[in-house]
């Protein structure tokens, strides 16, 4: 019986790893729908201030894994970019550090911009919902 459970566990792990991008996309979609429902309920009960905080926190939580996924997707497609980010040869010399710092700064600014956009979008969505409900 233990051997069957181990085999089924391995098969389940393979299925999860195979369909992980679809699972993550589905989880993000369900999270976004749940966020919208929670915002609707909070605005319905005249708790706009609470809805703004909840929307901002949940939007940032939904966005949290995107930079890591993006970095792994880019480094898998372009191995030289991965070597640049990790500081592996030929980017481990002092003369290559300005290029490395520039790429890392641009990536950090892009991630910060996406975070600000998510926060502003969450606040704007609460404002739009409260206008739609006439509250």
Salient structural properties:
85% helix, 135 residues, mainly alpha, single chain
Derived from helix and strand composition plus strand pairing, the structural class reads: mainly alpha
Shape: flat
Query: Count of helices?
Result: 6
> Which H/E pattern describes the elements?
HHHHHH
Main beta sheet: strand number and arrangement?
none
Tell me, rounded to a whole number, the average pLDDT.
81
Got a strand count? 0
Could you list the spans in which at least 5 consecutive residues all have pLDDT below 50?
A: none
Percent of sequence in beta strands: under 5%
Helix percentage range: over 70%
Describe this structure as you would to a colleague.
It is a single chain. The chain has 135 residues and is mainly α. Helices cover 85% and strands 0% of the residues. It is built from six helices and no strands. Helix 2 packs across helix 6 and helix 3 (48-63) packs antiparallel against helix 6. The longest helix is centred in the C-terminal third of the chain and has 37 residues, at 97-133. It is flat and about 60 Å long. It starts with a helix and ends with a helix. 7% of the residues are buried.
Concise summary:
This protein is mainly alpha-helical.
Lay out the secondary structure:
Elements lengths: L1 H17 L1 H25 L3 H16 L2 H12 L1 H8 L10 H37 L2
Helix pairs in contact: 2-3, 2-6, 3-6, 4-5
